[in-house]
Specification:
The complex is a heterodimer of chains A (1176) and B (163). With 1176 residues, chain A is α+β, with helices and mostly antiparallel strands. Chain A has 41 helices and 25 strands. Among the domains of chain A are: 227 residues, Neuraminidase (6 Propeller); 185 residues, Serine Threonine Protein Phosphatase 5, Tetratricopeptide repeat (Alpha Horseshoe); 122 residues, Serine Threonine Protein Phosphatase 5, Tetratricopeptide repeat (Alpha Horseshoe); 126 residues. In chain A, a hairpin with a 5-residue loop joins strand 8 and strand 9. In chain A, helix 4 packs parallel to helix 10. The N and C termini of chain B lie far apart (33 Å). Classes of the chains: A alpha+beta (1176), B mainly alpha (163).
């Protein structure tokens, strides 16, 4: 059949250019960010499996971890920044907690190979020698290295309900017998212990029995805080509880011993009513002062990860923190700098401005916790904690809100403001309890006592008459509880009795506007709710940024769900009421102007005044927005105008406005302002977008200029590759020299390395011929990319390109390990490209084609389906994906789905001239899949169409194969004469072919085709025999079948050939029965049954179709054709029963008619022993 | 990863003596090697502007200023000294016609405004009221960042008469 490789490989390679900007990661291995912005964890692993419990070896580059990618959980290693993992050894069972020794030569882990409860084992990484400590008498759950590398700590229990004990086992010391038990360090209640690098301190999480009836292992809960003691001390440990909500786990020391990292579950993220180790983990660190006792102070812990991430098992290395995080339902390893997401160098002011310029609520909470840690002024700290309370409540976490509010009160204990804060905290605690009670009732819990407890909470609410903000909190909680008790009138009265906004401070206004109004909007009239929002949008206690945020809410509410005319009217009316010099008027004016920006298909042509980049409509909007921008000098107001404009322009694809205002904004933000970073990133993104839009519009010069412009600002590899392509499109061939000139003094610059590699590989999409020059080019390109990757370890483009090279190496037949490497790199690039539509498309296509080439068609379909759901720039690309997906559908037996895709493809080919050249390929596939789907009319139509419009450069081999498919389709359609005609044509073509001609187009990585000339001739013979029989010429079929059977004389047991021989004997028996040579017919069927039974014995496939035909024919011929059963040469009933039992056991719908027929035959042949199949 | 190309200094005619203000007292050979402020600013930084502002520049796009030529220090000096902005569109259009340099007055020179954020934020041109801090573009981000030393030299050059 015609090959796909040319089209699809070209798609894959062209797709390499379709990628979006990626932030440049810092140069060193593992380090992931600068101090310029809040950092995101950088992904180190990716795939369809879980990767967890990672730690870096002493070389700082080898990442050790556990993964279930091979069905059992095994130990793996991965060299950073390369994305390819390798299994370290085959344990043959699950392992856990892989930990490299301090010298990196051994791996410590828990194995379940010999003991399902866990054994501590060691592997020499060079020699693979394995030794284990402990034995069946103990159940080990954790193990770690002592800093000296000569001993290990093991947590184990020695009885089913025994205690979790920590022992120290000295390696190299042999105890009596083979089981090493070591010396007890802690004799009970230990989990996740850690020892300080100087070997002095021991820290662990205490565990408690959750039931007195069973051992702690079976029913445990984490104790409170951490236990700390000196390793050699015999005193009871100190209990240190971090001043944080929730529970603590997984302590780990920094390499220098100055910090202790741990995981804290802050809130009830899984909604089961308790905060425990099953809830989201957040990583913290606290200073560790080994020269003091206690070495940890409870209130110093700093939050390192956002609560929106679920991270645990912190493993700090020399300059990087490795952690296991859950995203999208999978566990993977991530890295952050040691000081976490918020740079440790940031002082209060810097954090505050970052908060003002962040919209992400979890990030805001992360920044706020860091801010609170730094604040020394009690009132300021209390205000920050109160903000955290509001944030928590906004996220639907009242217990956490209550906790923060309580801490806010404690921060100002003894001061005049303490009473008000305590009243607020108490109100939030009551609200937390109330919502928890509601959740229990909603979940089907009993509601007896619900009303009484709600009333008790109401009664306990303390009014705070001299503190309006606290009074507002109390009133909001009271209104909510009354509302839930069904007392709506009372709730409404409480809300209406709230002080006016002018009488409230910032906390009170925000509580009402952000929490009260949304929650209780159903009680208030819309005008009342809006009045509160308007008050907040003009309230002097709120910051300008906060007022603008509320103004944005109002603006959105006025336009939501309204047609443009109605929206304009609503905004005009609101503008007429808004104070003219306030933030609200600014925001409403921006919204009003932007409503006049039409979508792309409603805009006129571009005009000269915009240098041909924008239409008259866009220019009119630009002018008004610019005037608004200029009229408001405050940075917050300008930022609000810019944000509204960028959002509106992006929505209608107005590249002109995007560029104008991204440029204006970045030019106006002071260099040291925290908003600068975002402004620069936005500008760069907009210029890159403009480059692609220009490229798509055929404005190659503009595209080239824009791509180049981005490269001047940043080492953006996407921009570099875009520049190279644009230069080449302009006809300039010396682009490599141009780039080399720019980096004359930096020969290993990542951009230069990448451009060089790209130019070497871009012309090699069709690598069927594995010349030495091709391989050299691939290897040199990979070396260049590896150099670039050492400096840009987080670049998805580099993982993508290296994945592509490995993919090509696999296709060249260089070994399956290249396919594995390609897969790992593509998956990591895909994970790093989250939210980046351009590169995701290219990666999904590449991954799908890779899986297809190794025969994993179901996995291929997963990726190809996702790719087909994304937009395509060129119709050729979509067609290539459709054909690829159809092929995989066919391979997994979904011929109907394949035909559906081909029908779409055929339509596209008919309607789009650019696709005309692919028509032959589509029809060729349609013929094959139509036959396979049992739709011979489709196959014949396609074949007829192809005959009328022959494919250019079609080969004799393809025509021969097509003729065979046509013959099979005609036979399927009941046209034996037509089938014979096609077979005559096939015979003529095959006569002139050899195996080499038939194998042309086979890729080196593919196993030798089964379709040798001999096999195709045998196929032809089989079809011809069937056609002759169907055409009423059974005698003519006999010699062909004899030839066929003789050709299969050496078929091995259990082989496909043996089954083919059984089928040939069935056909021969059929032909003989038509000639009324009954004895011979039965003898032939008996021989066939012997073959089929031997096949079943050898292969385990009891009921292949051939055996079903044989038993059925033998039985029917005997029962209805008077053929003598004895002539079969073997008893029929055992075969019949075997096949019937197999069909009954598996019960697939497609076997129903065969099963029913066999049941009838059994009844007739052996009425005494026949029973109905299970399930009827 | 900054591309700080270090070129050897150009020969500078001695009659540009005023441009040597601020440099140390030098022998004839040293003065020729160092160049005046503009030359030094060009060699150290302004040459990057040729990426977009030069005939056939790789970074040139529609809507860019159309008269500047930073191909060499001489062409840059010439186009800056006597020229004024042209071809600007959109939010920058009100700066068309504004001279790149006003001799002796860096605070009124468009060149300074696009390099120095303080000059840009406070730009106030009587002749072109619309060309203020909102219309002038920050050109330093387009070349990877600002160079305080080079910008100081540009300022010195303009202050000294922009010869």
């Amino acid at each position: 059949m015609l090959g796909l490789s040319r089209a699809t490989a070209a798609v894959a390679l062209c797709g390499l250019a379709l990628a979006a900007a990626a932030p440049v990661a810092a140069a060193s291995i593992g380090s992931v960010g600068t101090d310029a912005a809040v950092r995101e964890p950088r992904r180190l692993t990716a795939g369809d499996s879980d990767q967890l419990l990672g730690s870096l070896g002493p070389d700082g580059r080898t990442l050790f971890f556990a993964s279930n990618r091979d069905a059992v959980v095994g130990a793996f290693a991965q060299r950073l920044p390369d994305g390819v993992a390798r299994a370290l050894f085959d344990e043959g069972a699950d392992i856990s907690l892989p930990r490299p020794s301090p010298d990196g030569k051994r791996l410590l882990y828990i194995s379940t190979r010999d003991d399902a409860t866990g054994d501590t084992c060691l592997r020499e990484l060079e020699s693979d020698e394995r030794t284990c400590i402990g034995g069946p008498a103990t159940a080990e759950s954790a193990a770690f290295w002592f800093p000296d590398g000569k001993s290990v700590g093991v947590v184990a229990r020695s009885a089913m309900h025994g205690e979790q004990v920590l022992r120290r086992v000295w390696l190299g010391r042999r105890e009596a017998g083979t089981v090493q038990t070591g010396e007890i360090v802690v004799d009970r209640s230990v989990s996740t212990p850690a020892v300080s690098p100087d070997g002095v301190w021991l820290i662990y999480v205490p565990v408690e029995r959750a039931s007195k009836d069973v051992g702690v292992h079976f029913a445990m809960r984490l104790g409170h805080g951490l236990h700390v003691r000196k390793l050699r001390s015999t005193k009871a440990p100190r209990q240190i509880v971090p001043a944080l909500p929730g529970v603590t786990g997984f302590p780990a020391f920094s390499r220098d011993g100055r910090w202790l990292y741990f995981t804290q579950s802050l809130h009830d993220s899984n909604g089961d009513g308790q905060v425990d180790g099953d809830d989201h983990g957040v990583i913290f660190r606290t200073p560790f002062r080994g020269d003091q006792d206690p070495p940890i102070r409870p209130g110093e812990a700093r939050q390192l990860t956002s609560a929106s991430w679920n991270c645990r098992y912190p493993a700090p290395a020399e300059d990087t923190l490795i952690m296991t995080c859950e995203r999208g339902g999978r566990l993977d390893l991530y890295a952050l700098p040691l000081d976490g997401a918020v740079p440790g160098s940031w002082a209060e002011a810097r954090i505050r401005t970052a908060i003002d310029h962040t919209d992400d609520p979890d990030r805001i909470s992360l920044l706020l916790t860091n801010l609170a840690q730094l604040q020394r002024d009690p009132e300021a700290r209390a205000a920050t904690l109160q903000t955290l309370a509001r944030q928590a409540l906004r996220r639907g976490d009242p217990p956490l809100a209550a906790w923060y509010a309580t801490r806010a009160a404690m921060a100002v204990d003894g001061t005049p403001g303490a009473g008000a804060r305590r009243a607020t905290a108490a109100a939030l605690a009551a609200l937390a309890e109330h919502r928890r009670a509601i959740d229990r009732v909603d979940a089907g819990g009993r509601d007896e006592g619900f009303a009484a407890s709600a009333e008790a909470r109401l009664a306990a609410l303390v009014a705070a008459p001299d503190a309006p903000d606290a009074a507002a909190w109390v009133a909001l909680v009271r209104a909510e509880i009354d509302d839930d008790l069904g007392r709506e009138e009372k709730a409404l009265a409480t809300l209406r009795a709230l002080p006016r906004a002018e009488a409230l401070g910032r906390d009170g206004v925000l509580a009402v506007v952000l929490l009260g109004v949304p929650r209780l909007r159903g009680l208030l009239a819309p005008a009342e709710a809006d009045a509160w929002l308007w008050s907040a949008a003009t309230h002097p206690a709120l910051s300008p940024a906060e007022r603008l945020a509320v103004a944005a809410q109002i603006s959105a509410a006025l336009t939501r769900g309204r047609k443009p005319t109605a929206a304009r009217k609503a905004l005009d009316e609101a503008l007429s009421r808004a104070p003219t010099d306030g933030e609200l008027a600014v925001r409403l004016a921006a919204a009003r102007t932007l409503l006049d920006l039409p979508p792309a298909d409603a805009r006129g042509p571009t005009i000269a005044a915009t240098a041909g980049l924008g239409s008259a409509e866009e220019e009119a909007v630009r002018e008004k927005i610019f005037a608004l921008f200029r009229a408001n000098r405050e940075l917050d107001r300008r930022r609000a105008v810019i944000r509204a404009t960028i959002a509106a322009a992006a929505k209608v694809d107005s590249a002109y406005l995007l560029y104008q205002f991204a440029n204006t904004w970045v030019s106006g933000v002071p260099r040291d302002h925290p908003a600068r970073q975002q402004a620069v990133a936005l500008f760069r993104q907009v210029v890159l977008e403009r480059a692609w839009i220009s490229w798509q519009a055929g404005r190659v010069g503009d595209a080239r200029g824009s791509f180049y412009g981005v490269t001047l600002q940043d080492d953006d590899l996407e921009a570099w590759l875009g520049f190279v392509e644009a230069r080449l499109a302009e006809g300039k061939r010396d682009v490599q020299a141009e780039v080399e000139k720019r980096f004359a003094k930096q020969p290993e610059h990542p951009a230069l390395c990448t451009v060089r590699a790209w130019l070497a590989i871009r012309g090699r999409a069709e690598l069927a011929a594995a010349s030495a020059a091709d391989r050299d080019a691939l290897e040199r390109a990979d070396a260049d990319l590896a150099t670039a990757q050492r400096q840009m370890p987080g670049s998805r483009h580099l993982h993508h390109l290296r994945g592509w090279i490995a993919h090509q190496r696999f296709l060249l037949g260089d070994g399956r390990e290249f396919a594995v490497a390609a897969h790992d790199r593509y998956r990591l690039a895909l994970a790093l490209a989250e939210g980046d539509g351009r590169i995701r498309g290219a990666l999904l296509a590449a991954l799908g084609l890779l899986q297809q080439s190794v025969g994993n068609h179901r996995l291929a379909l997963e990726a190809l389906r996702k790719r087909l759901a994304l937009p395509f720039v060129r119709p050729q690309s979509r067609l290539a994906m459709q054909l690829a997906a159809a092929r995989s559908h066919w391979h997994v037996g979904e011929a109907d789905a394949a035909l559906e895709l081909l029908a779409e493809a055929e339509r596209a080919v008919r309607e789009q001239p650019a696709l005309a050249g692919a028509r032959g390929l589509v029809l060729d596939r349609m013929a094959l899949y139509g036959f396979e789907a049992g739709r011979p009319e489709v196959a014949q139509r396609a074949a007829a169409a192809l005959a009328q419009h022959p494919v250019a450069r079609d080969s004799a081999a393809n025509r021969a194969r097509r003729a065979l498919v046509l013959a099979a389709s005609r036979l399927q359609a009941g046209d034996p004469a037509g089938s014979r005609a096609a077979l005559t044509e096939a015979g003529k073509l095959l006569a002139g072919l050899n195996d080499e001609a038939l194998g042309a187009g086979r890729r080196p990585h593919q196993p030798p085709h089964e379709v040798s000339r001999e096999r195709l001739l045998a196929l032809r013979d089989g079809l011809l025999a069937r056609a002759l029989i169907a055409d009423g010429a059974p005698a003519a079929a006999l010699p062909i079948l004899d030839r066929r059977i003789a050709g299969l004389a050496d078929a091995e047991a259990g082989s496909r050939e043996q089954l083919d021989r059984a089928a040939a004997r069935w056909h021969r028996g059929l032909a003989l029965s038509l000639l009324n040579r009954k004895r011979e017919a039965m003898r032939e069927l008996g021989l066939g049954l012997a073959d089929a039974a031997a096949f079943a014995e050898a292969s385990g496939t009891v009921a292949p179709p051939e055996r079903i035909w044989l038993v059925r024919s033998a039985a029917e011929f005997h029962l209805f054709g008077d053929a003598p059963l004895a002539a079969l040469g073997r008893p029929l009933l055992p075969d019949l029963r075997d096949v019937y039992a197999a069909l009954s056991r598996f019960g697939a719908p497609r076997w129903r008619s065969a099963r029913d027929a066999l049941q009838l035959l059994l009844t007739l042949l052996d009425p005494a022993k026949t029973s109905a199949p299970a399930g009827g | 990863m900054r591309n700080l190309r270090l070129r050897s200094a150009l020969l500078v005619p001695m009659w540009l003596g005023s441009a040597l203000l601020g440099t140390a007292a030098v022998s004839g050979c040293e003065a020729v090697a160092a160049g005046d402020d503009f030359t030094q600013a060009y060699d150290g930084y302004l040459n990057k502007c040729a990426s977009c502002h030069a005939p056939g520049a790789a970074g040139a796009t529609a809507g860019i200023e159309t008269t500047l030529d930073f191909s060499t220090a001489d062409t840059a000096r010439a186009s800056l000294k006597t020229g004024s902005a042209a071809g600007l569109t959109g939010n920058q259009a009100s700066c068309n016609g504004v001279p790149f340099v006003v001799a002796g007055k860096p605070e009124q020179s468009l060149l300074m405004a696009v390099l120095d954020e303080n000059v840009r934020q406070n730009l106030d041109l009587a002749s072109h009221a619309g060309c203020d801090g909102t219309a002038a573009t920050d050109m330093t981000i387009r070349v990877g960042g600002a160079d305080a030393d080079a910008i100081a030299k540009v300022r010195a050059w303009i202050t000294a008469g922009a010869e």
